[in-house]
Amino acid sequence: MPHLQYSGLNLSRDVDFTTMDHLGDNGCSCVILHVKKDKILCDIDDENISLSLSSYNKDSIQGEILFLGALDDRYYFVEAGTDGVQKDTQKYMSIRAVTQQLSSFESALAAYAKGLLEWHETHRFCPACGSANTLQQFGALRICTNESCRKESYPRINPAVIMLVEAEVGDQTKVLLAHHRHYRKGHYSTLAGYLSLGESLEDAVRREVWEETRVRVSNVQYCGSQPWSFSGSIMILFTAKAETTAIEPDGVEVIDARWFSRNEIIERKLFSSPDSASGYLIKAWLEKDADDCEEALKVDPSKG
Ligand SMILES: [Zn+2]
Known about the structure:
The chain is α+β, with helices and mostly antiparallel strands.
């Protein structure tokens, strides 16, 4: 089975942040990523790019520092805005661009750090009374400084559903894939959309498919989730069965939508976004009926 990409950090805050300087005493290390707006500090050598991780040093911290999580005895933090460059081999790189060149873990870590920083940067003031918010617990929340208010604000996540819709069309089992307005020519992927207030996840799946393609679906089944930190979202994955097969794209977001067979998907390499939830859903569907389709699923990088 394909896997969903995310950082896998343990976000548990059972850490005594008041004794930060002693976190390393038990053999653990504290490392800091440096982010400036849309860029993250990277180490670059002739062939590889990796995230620059500097050791935590209380005296060198200049800006706000946020706790990201822990993995393998290492605590990850991100510091915003300050210049972390210490060597010639370090450079701030566009997070969007560099994630293509980082390992899966570092790519997810960079996106997560950016998403968390962005929330903090846009919540410097209390939404209730407009007073300044202060950072608490290394980024777990912000609290209003107005003594008569003290409203707490927590980093918000926007849930989105993404779904693979399956139907029997003619004598074949096919899936519904859509070409969105902003896609490159010839690219199709699964339908997706944000949850509305007051709506269940299953209702959101049924509504989004109906709104974008006028296909009615049932038998909505949960099959995983993936943080999508660039937009502060979490993608919640579903499969669904179509009750109708006539397609009418909404013409606004979805320009075209079609039923694709297994062979058409493989020929057109429509599963080729390896880290995306859409790619995961399509690959999982392809592999479901195949004992050995590893060769067929290999992506030819030259055809991107
Ligand atoms: Zn307030």
